[in-house]
């Protein structure tokens, strides 16, 4: 299950072909992958913001209390895993439009493995240096997009021209999801789970 990570980061085309060659039952057994990997960013964020802390324009280290961090990491995990599941289900739903054979877990597994760079970059939040974390997050998002565009034709068994349109539709759904989550985060941050900062 975790053995596909190096291949996705170094030789993704070969790795997607290896995953696509699996039987439906073998693909179903990969479902725990996104469930566990989505834990990395929230746990790293929890350690980074409550134990390590960060500085903003000075030498004072800023942290948040453990009690106020817990609701935020739970919501972060739900949002991250929710993205994988929701977009994965949309991949399955759109498969009929693009004359592809699919089932719901296949779409979720595809999306889970495509999000590997985001999971790994999120783990770097254990040491919160904001400019590094933002740079890593940007690179991870770009590489995840690349993995989605590469995976859809291979995993869903469609020609590259239709696969590009299919992947573009998936990308648009992902953008809508991100906007909804950002609005939700703003509301939750302001009214429900406001972090308590400490020096």
Structure notes:
- The protein has 199 residues and is mainly alpha-helical.
- The protein has helices spanning 5-10, 12-20, 24-28, 32-37, 40-52, 66-94, 104-114, 116-122, 130-156, 160-191, and strands at residues 54-55, 61-64, 197-198.
- It is elongated and about 55 Å long.
- The mean pLDDT is 92.
What is the count of helical runs?
A: 10
The main sheet comes to: 3 strands, antiparallel
Approximate shape = elongated
By secondary-structure content and strand pairing, the structural class works out as: mainly alpha
- Count of individual beta strands: 3
Strand content: under 5%
Topology:
Layout: H1 5-10, H2 12-20, H3 24-28, H4 32-37, H5 40-52, E1 54-55, E2 61-64, H6 66-94, H7 104-114, H8 116-122, H9 130-156, H10 160-191, E3 197-198
Antiparallel strand pairs: 1-2, 2-3
Quick summary:
The chain has one domain (2-198). The protein is 73% helix and 4% strand. It contains ten helices and three strands; from the N terminus they run H-H-H-H-H-E-E-H-H-H-H-H-E.
Name some characteristics of this structure.
single chain, 199 residues, mainly alpha, 3-stranded antiparallel sheet
């Amino acid at each position: 299950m975790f053995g596909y990570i190096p291949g996705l980061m170094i030789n993704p085309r070969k790795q997607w072909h290896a995953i696509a060659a699996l039987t439906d039952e073998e693909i179903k057994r990969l479902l725990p992958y996104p469930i566990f990997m989505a834990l990395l960013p929230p746990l790293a964020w929890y350690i980074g913001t409550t134990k390590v802390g960060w500085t903003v324009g000075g030498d004072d280290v800023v942290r948040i209390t453990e009690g106020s961090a817990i609701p935020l990491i739970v919501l972060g995990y739900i949002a991250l895993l929710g993205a994988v599941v929701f977009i994965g289900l949309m991949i399955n739903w759109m498969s009929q439009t693009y004359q592809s054979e699919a089932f719901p877990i296949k779409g979720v597994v595809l999306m889970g493995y495509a999000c590997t760079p985001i999971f790994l970059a999120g783990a770097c939040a254990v040491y919160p240096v904001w400019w590094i974390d933002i740079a890593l997050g940007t690179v991870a998002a770009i590489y995840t997009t690349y993995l989605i565009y590469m995976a859809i034709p291979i995993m869903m068994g469609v020609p590259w021209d239709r696969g590009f349109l299919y992947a573009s539709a998936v990308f648009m759904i992902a953008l809508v999801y991100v906007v909804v989550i950002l609005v939700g985060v703003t509301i939750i941050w302001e009214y429900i789970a406001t972090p308590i900062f400490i020096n």
